[in-house]
Amino acid sequence: MNPSDPTPLPPDWAAQTAQRQALADTARAMVAAGLNKGSAGNLSCRARLAGEDGFYITPTGMDYGGLTAQDIPFVALASGAPTGPRKPSSEWRMHRDVYLARPEAGAVLHAHSPFAVALACLRRDVPPFHYMIARFGGDTVRCSAYATFGTQALSDTAVEAMTGRRACLLANHGMLVFGGELQQALGLGVELETLCEQYWRACQLGQPVLLDPAQMEEALEKFASYGKQD
Q1: Are 155 and 90 in contact (CB under 8 A)?
Q2: Going by C-beta distance under 8 Å and a sequence separation of 6 or more, which residues neighbour residue 153?
Q3: Reduced to 3 states, what is the DSSP secondary structure of residue 65?
Q4: Which residues are known to be catalytic?
Q5: Cα–Cα distance between 40 and 193 in angstroms, integer?
Q6: Where in the numbering of this chain does the Class II aldolase/adducin N-terminal domain appear (predicted)?
Q7: Model confidence at 5, in pLDDT bands (50, 70, 90)?
Q8: CA separation, residue 1 to residues 9, 53, 55, 152 (Å)
Q9: What percent of the chain clears pLDDT 70, i.e. is strictly above it?
Q10: Is pTM, for the whole model, over 0.90?
Q11: 11-66 residue pLDDT tens
């Protein structure tokens, strides 16, 4: 379904200004980190508005540099109906379906970053050339099948590629990652772009030596407690 025109703002809209502002600020941080330029890509975070579960998401076609909290629309998880003065990103389905499929997802980031796009245009998985691949939940970062942007078909193939993972590449398109909250999603996006660059550079010198299944399994076990303070 396509979202209908935005609905009138509910009474608790103003009370959630800080959450929408955090989303706008993180979208600008994506640009500063080199993940996006202009209005490319999109970012969302889970929210609850007027008693309904959903998510805030960057609006379609707007440069991140001028985004304000008032520009950030809400999309209902069940219906896909938007609320707010701006229309949501054309990729809202992909965000919604990640939230539906992955309860642990609190924020979803999609970027057209240079090295992720380069590998996605080759339709390559990122293999276990480095143990940090385990950061994303498996021994590879998969590349999805191709589908037109903004379609349910793209959403379906993205969710499939992310099975058991926190990230995937989208064929001839870019990257998709999720985190528990906005800063984690941003951090994972930066990490994935870095790994894509490192893999690309290693391939210029030859065929990278890949870690074997036992080595990756050990890395995955260590990442189960990675970053947790005692």
Answers
A1: no
A2: 147
A3: helix
A4: 91
A5: 15
A6: 21-200
A7: low
A8: 22, 18, 17, 9
A9: 94
A10: yes
A11: 888 889 999 999 999 999 999 999 988 778 999 999 999 999 999 999 998 888 88
Phi, psi angles (nearest 5°) of residue 14:
-65, -35
Question: Is residue 125 within 8 Å of residue 196, measured between CB atoms?
Answer: no
In the structure encoding, which two tokens stand for residue 229, read together? 């303070």
Structure tokens at 228: 């947790």
**Helix, strand, or coil here: 221?**
helix
| H or E segment to which residue 217 belongs | helix 213-223
Q: In the sheet where 74-76 sits, what is the strand order?
A: 82-83, 74-76, 52-57, 42-49, 107-111, 174-179, 167-170
The rounded Cα 143 to chain-centroid distance in angstroms is 14
Confidence of residue 9 (pLDDT cuts 50, 70, 90): confident
- Asked if 127 contacts 212 with a C-beta cutoff of 8 angstroms, the reply is no
d(CA 30, CA 108): 12
Q: How confident is the model at residue 7 (pLDDT cuts 50, 70, 90)?
A: low
